[in-house]
Write a structure and sequence with these properties.
With 154 residues, this protein is an alpha+beta fold. Helix content is 23%, strand content 38%. Strand 1 and strand 2 form a beta hairpin.
Length: 154
Amino acid sequence: MIKGLRPLLLVNILALLGQTWTEAAAEEAIAKQEDVKTGTVPGNAARDIWGDFNALGTGPFWALSIRDGQLTLSRAGKNDIITINPGPTAMAKRSATWSIPHQPYPFTLTLTRVECVDGASARRYDLAAKLVFQGKTLYGCAASVAAIPAGPAP
């Protein structure tokens, strides 16, 4: 019963955000999330890069939180951009990509399993992040929310 309400809930959220999305598209996004979570999508990256993650970069500062239900892009001095999390739209052996086509702020985020060092704090992360937003490519690092407190302090 609850699973059947999820597509309707997503459609209503999108309607509130001024987006149009069919129930079929919502069901497809949910099915993709379930496939990734259960590992039925080819490759290991999808299973490794799934859950709650934080990505961040400097020059200019940006941060993107990935949660089960939403993505939140934060930038210095700007309002946050909040959208639903459709799950990774492309996956490779060591990476996962989220593509958010919703106007007026489309963006693409790719997380790649490779050691990354934040230049501002010298903290080490297990993922590199690449954000394509407003015609610019921004780079940073990412880690699961659970792994961030376990990392060594700068």
